[in-house]
Every structure is written in C-alpha cells, then in structure tokens.
Design brief:
The protein has 161 residues and is an alpha/beta fold. The chain has one domain: 3-Layer(aba) Sandwich (Rossmann fold), CATH 3.40.50.450. Helices cover 35% and strands 20% of the residues. Strands 4-3-2-1-5-6-7 form a seven-stranded parallel sheet, with helices on both faces. Helix 1 runs parallel beside helix 2. The chain is globular and about 35 Å long. The two termini are 24 Å apart.
Length: 161
C-alpha cells in the first residue's frame, strides 16, 4: 500500500564526468522533480548527481545524497541530507532502491550497474542520453517526458496538471 503522506522519491543516476548536454539535462530533471513535489536521491557526488541536485535545490526541493564514503564533506553542495555509507560502489544498491523510479542520464559502467540493480528489484527506469539499449528501460526524449513518466509510474500527477 502506498504511503499517501510521503512525497514521491526519484533516484537520478548518471555520469560523474558528463557531456555538457548531460549536465543541462540533469539540472532540468532535478528542477522538474522538485517542482513536482518529489524528493531527489542520488549518489551525492559530482557530474550528473551534482547537476540534478543543483536543479532540485534551486527549485526548493529536497535532495538526499547516498555517499560511497564515510565523509560528509564529499557530498556536493546541493545535498540537504547526507548519508555517508562507506560502501563504495555497493552503495549503488541503495541509490537504486531508494527511488520509487529511477532516471538515468548519460553514464558509464556505474550507471549501467544502477540501472541493472533498479530493474532487478522492480524499480521502473527511464533513460536520457544513454549510449545503450537496455530491455525494460523507457527511453525519454527530454527531461519533462522522463520526469512525467516517473511520476505517473509511481502514481503521482504529471507536471502541469
């Protein structure tokens, strides 16, 4: 049963060294998640994680960073709640599990592992700017489509409704 008092939780995963268009895309994804009333979860570091966090934070949203280290200061400056795990790449399981849906932007093997983990535990995944075709991943054309899809998939309203 869905907890009606809890805001939607969406994990954003992606490249730590993204292309410029991926940075802009991640920022927009974060902004739209916050504007839709969602909480953004990520690995809490740089690249796509930082840009999505910045977009959400600037839009007044809540940002949770699940760090691979034990050090709070490793979080990007836009994270509201820092969870230092000391789990290195194993923290990818937590990032995938915390979101009721996952949006992947650009990325490499770490992103691919988070996508696989999310799909394996039944989390819906949308992709933007991915270099791979992955069965079960919804490929969105733009950030609004990805975020609308995520909210709709987890039972929330689409943006602008």
């Amino acid at each position: 049963m869905k907890n009606m008092s809890s805001p939607p939780q969406i994990s954003v995963v992606g490249a730590s060294s993204p292309k410029k268009n991926a940075r802009e895309t991640a920022f927009e994804v974060g902004r739209l998640i916050a504007e839709g009333g969602g909480v953004l979860f990520s690995g809490g570091l740089g690249g796509v994680m930082e840009e999505a966090s910045r977009g959400a934070k600037e839009a007044g949203g809540m940002v949770v960073g699940i760090l691979p280290t034990y050090e709070h200061h490793h979080a990007n400056p836009y994270v509201n709640i820092i969870i230092p795990t000391g789990l290195n790449r194993a923290r990818n399981v937590l990032v995938a599990a915390c979101g009721q849906a996952v949006i992947a932007v650009d990325g490499s093997y770490g992103t691919l592992s988070e996508i696989a983990l999310a799909l394996n535990i039944g989390r819906p995944v949308a992709g933007l700017l991915l270099d791979w075709e992955i069965p079960g991943v919804y490929i969105a054309e733009n950030p609004k489509e990805a975020v609308d899809w995520a909210f709709t998939t987890i039972g929330g309203a689409q943006l602008g409704e």
